[in-house]
Design goal:
Rossmann fold, about 35% helix, alpha/beta, 10 strands
């Protein structure tokens, strides 16, 4: 894991975007396409804005997969991740191929099978992710399933995760936050050749320390498994690194 601590979340987002652009351009140069996974949430605001401004990326030669989505939430809702990605990324750069999760389908397991068939044929060059205040990656809340090989799975959202969504302003009440979602699995995330993990803000400081300080890897701290991947690029700001002595000084 290569860890970078930037002065603030804007600088962290820009640094992560520069690395993302480098990886995408290299993949396109070498094999005429780049396949990536895109995340959502407040932690990705600065990163995605900077990524859409990265020069010399032939987005028509890219394929995009979607990290996670609520079950039963309409795309018109402000918290819809499909809406988020369309507004902040897809409509701006127009990837050549886009595979979004349809959380409104009557049968979420069938939607997982549809996506699993598609993504199983692809080599993922890079996954763009964050971590939750509870240490989750995608919607794999603790204790996360480190074993399943299914690319997409149906998950139950824990209270900490749902409170985070409320705290970020996506919902008016906790009761409005869906209790289930479709999420890319931990093992599928780890199949990406590169992982860019952007973790800004003070509210993520405890999760950053729990998941990345020391050597332990535990399903109770889902993002800790990123330490087992050879090409993880972790971007923190001074606030999120503040409790992690090795990088926070």
């Amino acid at each position: 894991m290569i860890t970078s601590v930037l002065e603030n979340k804007e600088e962290a987002g820009k640094a992560a975007a520069r690395k993302a652009g480098e990886i995408l351009r290299k993949a396109i140069d070498e094999k005429d396409e780049a396949v990536f996974v895109a995340a959502t949430g407040a932690s990705q605001f600065e990163f995605l804005e900077a990524l859409t401004e990265e020069p010399a990326i032939d987005w028509s030669k890219t394929k995009m997969f979607h990290l996670d989505e609520y079950i039963g939430l309409p795309e018109t809702h402000p918290a819809s991740f499909r809406r988020y990605l369309k507004e902040r990324l897809i409509e701006k750069v127009q990837p050549g191929e886009v595979h979004l999760i349809d959380g409104e389908r009557d049968d979420p397991e069938k939607e997982c099978r549809r996506l699993n068939e598609i993504i199983s044929r692809e080599y993922i060059d890079v996954a763009f992710i964050g971590i939750g205040e509870n240490g989750h990656i995608a919607f794999n809340d603790p204790p996360a399933d480190f074993e399943t090989q299914k690319p997409y799975i149906v998950v139950e959202l824990d209270q900490a995760c749902r409170r985070q969504q409320l705290g970020e302003g996506w919902f008016e009440t906790l009761e409005d936050v869906p209790e289930r979602a479709i999420s890319m699995s931990v093992q599928q995330i780890l199949k990406a050749e590169n992982i860019i993990c952007t973790v800004p803000e003070k509210r993520k400081a405890q999760a950053a320390k729990d998941c990345f300080a020391g050597e332990d890897v535990s399903p109770q701290y889902p993002a800790s498994i990123l330490k087992e991947h050879e090409k993880v690029f972790l971007y923190l700001d001074r606030n999120s690194a503040s409790l992690w002595e090795e990088v926070g000084s």
